[in-house]
Every structure is written in structure tokens, then in C-alpha cells.
Amino acid sequence: MGSRASSLLREEDIEEIKKETGFSHSQITRLYSRFHSLDKGENGALSREDFQRIPELAINPLGDRIINAFFPEGEDQVNFRGFMRTLAHFRPVEDNEKNKDPSAGEPLNSRNNKLLFAFRLYDLDRDDKISRDELLQVLRMMVGVNISDEQLGSIADRTIQEADTNGDMCISFSEFIKVLEKVDVEQKMSIRFLH
Amino acid sequence: MESYLFPFDNLLCMLLGISFTVWFTLLLVFIIVPAVFGVSFGIRRLYMNTLLKIFEWATLRMERGAKEKNQQLYKPYSNGIIAKEPASLEQEIQEMRRSGSGLGGAEFDMSDIFYFCRRGVESIVDDEVTKRFTAEELESWNLLTRSNYNFHHISTRLTVLWGLGVLIRYGILLPLRVTLAFTGVGLLVFLTSIIGLLPNGGMKSFLSEKVHLMCYRICVRALTAIITYHDSENKPKNGGICVANHTSPIDVIILASDGCYAMVGQVHGGLMGVIQRAMVKACPHIWFERSEVKDRHLVAKRLSDHVADKSKLPILIFPEGTCINNTSVMMFKKGSFEIGCTVYPVAIKYDPRFGEAFWNSSKFGMVNYLLHMMSSWAIVCSVWYLPPMSREEGEDAVQFANRVKAAIARKGGLADLLWDGGLKREKVKEVFKEEQQKLYSKVLVGGEED
């Protein structure tokens, strides 16, 4: 029962999260309730097991990579701030936000940050480039046992060939952005949060 | 000193004696006698309507209080936190590729990952399964602490009302209900044991029926359950199986107070065991030993034997296998649908405003749960008897089970899910992930072929 959840979140915290992520007050309280219901250990933080308990996520071929994206380097627990920060990447881009104060820094849900999130799903060792190996591993996650090694290898080679412009046989973030410049990232990487 | 206390003592005893007698007479007249004869004075409905008005008032006050402080009230996400689009994997990926590189059906594109990514994060924010294993959140407050999400918005008047509510519920209703519960169960054990001494025959079944009904009706009043039965012409008949959606152990009492069923279950120790042994003396119920439960053939055989004997009562089974929170119906286990007899579906829908009937067995034990039940305002529910269904030609047990499940979900206004209720405790099977991988592979390889 997510009953007492909203009373554990202080108004100051809600204001800070609002500024950082752009979610509305009611969205934040509802997401806190969701966070609380996932937190079976009731210790204010989520572990990887808490995420894996969601059946729809467990059957997602990239489930583990997505779960990983919530946890900062080397950590096993994510608190509510971290949770919201990651979710903020999926907020839809609203027009009035484009005219915001430029000194406030790039919002978490900008096109660039959405692409960075996706890039990090491929970049397993977080070295800011996608090697052939990493691409193969992620492809293998997505197709399971249904495609042979050779076929998968040729798919990976072709993809790198098309994207790689500086000849280092890896895809850097700028090359990644170039490949996807025609894709409507704002729409495909956005979730419609209700008010 | 003692001489002073003496008259007080006497007076106290007299008062206690009188109040006890009055209380018991009221109990007898207003509750037990109607239970025995199956009539109702309508007191419970009046009570229910009064409560509803009070709840609405309480919510309005909380909203006003919140507005004054310029804060927002927490509204449960009954409409969902996010809006999902029900497109399939192939549709979405093809669409993405078409808009991106202008080549529909091409092989792997780096943007394919967006689909899985978005779906994954959507399921983290709101998934169909995990929310079915906790109690449903309420739109308006029903003066129970356990369902209040807006503590800081309670005004003094509301607190007083809540305090009054606590007094009534724990001081008056709870002891009353506990007494009734003991009476009901005690009578059940006692009378069924006596009936067990009679020789098998028409008299025994007739008496057994009456006794069972009477005791269940007393138990219904012990919970202050206000039940509305619909379509009673479809009530289950002998030689059939009655299936219903499962929300709590109370489902049994609710159904059995309106008709006679043969129960199915594991043999328990303790009080449950005593009740089980007594019940089976009066009429044949099906109790399995722990070891027998694993043997599916044995279970199926005993059920079919029972069903084949037309003099025996219809079997009551809950195919979900576990308690779900009454917002959806989850996968029905096919075992009861393989037996090949008529199935009588029943839909049970609780109104959570008066008391949450769902038993969250991972959070509360049985005693805690019963205590919650008996200290709520009431248990209000509707029961729909659906027309009987049988397996059609060319339909296998799983399809039949799904058909029955869909009918129950539709009637009760519940979501119809394919997920297994066993996911409450177990991990999802790998095979579902493999299905997703296969689907995606088809999109990849299919693109290569042109």
C-alpha cells in the first residue's frame, strides 16, 4: 500500500527535484509513491533486485542494461533523487522550455541528453566509444539465440562502417549523433507523463 | 471500608448482568435469528449509505484544508501515471526506421534500441503486474488510518470524527464481530459433528445444507458484509465446478452463504484442521494432504470422481491460485478446466471504500488480516453468477480457461491479464524474454531478405 509514501517526502525536496528535472508537483508525488512501492526493503533506495522484480522489465531483452543506467558508476543503490534524475531524460520536450534561461544548463530531457542515454546503453565499459565487441554484445542481447554469430558479426561490421567517420573502428558520441540525426529522438525517447 | 464497597459491588454486578443480557438479546434478535432464517432488516444498507455521506464530507474537508495551506492533495494514480501506446514491437520499429533513414524494413538500425529503452522505462514507472499485489488506492478517504495518504491535511474536526470512528470500530464493532465469529465457527463445528452421526441419506444432506448456510450467514454478519447477488438463476448446480476470481479467504464465506459448495483445499493443522474435519463429516468436501497436492493426476482424479457423482455438491475452486487485489483477473490455472464438466463462473467485486478485503499475504499474516477486516467499517461486494460454460469443440483447456476468465473480467469490471498470479512470489519465466528476442530477430532477418 503506497499509503504513507507521500508524507515522507518533504516540500523542499519536491521543490528541488522540480527545478532539477522539470516534473510537476503531482507527478513527483506519484512517482515517489511508485518508488516506495518498488522499494521492498523500505530503506529509501532501490537495488537491482527491486527492478528485476518487475515482470515486464525482466522480459525486456535490454532489461539489465536499462537497470544499469539508473545506477551511477560502482554503486548498488539508487535513491529517489537519482531515480528522478534518470526518469527526467524521458520527459517530453515542451516548446516553452526552449526559451528558458540559457545559464541554467541543458535540461535533462534535451535531445542531446536523450541520445547520450541511448549511447550509454551501448557503451558497456563507459569509455565513451562503442567498440565492435560492445555492439556485438548488445545485439546478442536483443536477438537471443535466433541469429548466427557470422550474421550478427556482419550486421555489426556494416553498422560501424556506416557510422565511423574517423576510421578508428569505433563509434564515438558525435558519430552516433550524426547517424541518428534524421530520427525523431524527442518523440521516440519520451514517455507521456499524465498530470 | 468494606461495608462501603458492598452496595457498590452489588450495583456493579447488577449493571453488568443487565447490560450483558440486553446485549445478548439484541444480538440474538437482530443478528443471529435473521441469519438462521436468511432474512435481513436492512440495517446494514442504511449504515452503508450513512458512511458514504460521511466519507464524501471528509474528503471535501481535506481538499479545503489543502487549498488553504496552498498545497496539493495526493491523488492516487487510478488513471495511470503515464499514457502508453499499445503498438507492437514490429510496428514501432518499422515506423522508426521509415521515419529515420527512409528505408522501411532495412536491417539493424542503431535507433532500434529506443523501442526497448522506452518500453523498459515505461514498465519501471508503471507496470501491469506488481500493482495487482498491493491494495488498491482510494479516491476519497474513508476515515481509516491505513488508507490515508494526506496526513498533514487533517483539520481538528476531521480528527475528532476519525477518533470517534476508532472508538466505534474498536470499541463496539470489533468485540461484536469477534463474538459473532466465535459463535459462527463454534456452531459450525458442533452441529456438523452431530450431523455426521446420522446415516447417509436425504435427511443428512438437507440438515447439512441448512447448518452450513446458517453458520456462514452468521460469519457474514461477523464481518458486516453487505453482499448483493446478481443473476441467481445461474447458481451452480450439482456435478459442476464453480470458478471465481480470488481476492481473499473471505470469498469462500461470501459464496457459501448463498449456496452449498464442496470445498477444495489442503489439510491444515490447528483450528483450520478442526473445522475441516468437522465439515467433512456432514458432507463430502475435498481435502488434500500436502504431499498429494503435487500429484496433478491424483488431484484431477479426485475432482472428476466428485463431479461424476450427481448427488455431491458443486466444487468451489479459485483458479488464480493466489489472492489478487480485485482490480484485475490473472491467469487461470488450467487444471480445473481439464476435467470436462460444466463450469459455472462467478465474478466477485469488492467496494474498497468500506474496508479493504484484499489479503496481502507477504505483508500481513492471517490473524492481522482478520483483525483489519473486523475493524473496518464493512465489507461491501457484488457477486454475479454468470451463465454456465463448457469446453467447445477444438478448444483446449488453456483456451477454455481464458474464455471463462474474460467473461468474469468483463462482468466484474476487472482488467483481464495474461500474467500469472504466481509472479507475486516467483520470477518470470525466461521463455517470455526469449519470445521478445525472437520477435526482434524476425524484424532483423526479415529485412535482410529483400
From TrEMBL, chain A:
GO molecular function, one term: calcium ion binding
InterPro entries cross-referenced by the UniProt entry: Calcineurin_B_homologous, EF-hand-dom_pair, EF_Hand_1_Ca_BS, EF_hand_dom
Location of this chain's protein in the cell: Cell membrane; Cytoplasm; Nucleus
Domain of life (superkingdom): Eukaryota
SUPFAM superfamilies: EF-hand (SSF47473)
PROSITE patterns referenced in this protein's UniProt entry, alphabetically: EF_HAND_1 (PS00018), EF_HAND_2 (PS50222)
Biological process per Gene Ontology, one example term: protein transport
Keyword annotations of the record: Calcium, Cell membrane, Cytoplasm, Lipoprotein, Membrane, Metal-binding, Myristate, Nucleus, Phosphoprotein, Protein transport, Repeat, Transport
Domain EF-hand: 26-61, 110-145, 151-186
Keyword field contains Transport: yes
Family: Belongs to the calcineurin regulatory subunit family. CHP subfamily.
Protein name (database record): EF-hand domain-containing protein
From TrEMBL, chain B:
GO BP terms, alphabetized: phospholipid biosynthetic process; triglyceride biosynthetic process
Keyword Membrane: yes
Subcellular location: Membrane
One Pfam family from the record: Acyltransferase
Top-rank taxon: Eukaryota
Keyword terms, alphabetized: Acyltransferase, Lipid biosynthesis, Lipid metabolism, Membrane, Phospholipid biosynthesis, Phospholipid metabolism, Transferase, Transmembrane, Transmembrane helix
Every Phospholipid/glycerol acyltransferase domain range: 240-351
Main location: membrane
InterPro entries in UniProt: LPCAT1-like, Plipid/glycerol_acylTrfase
PANTHER family for this protein: GLYCEROL-3-PHOSPHATE ACYLTRANSFERASE 4, PHOSPHOLIPID ACYLTRANSFERASE
Protein name per Swiss-Prot or TrEMBL: Phospholipid/glycerol acyltransferase domain-containing protein
Source organism phylogeny: Eukaryota, Metazoa, Chordata, Craniata, Vertebrata
Gene: GPAT4
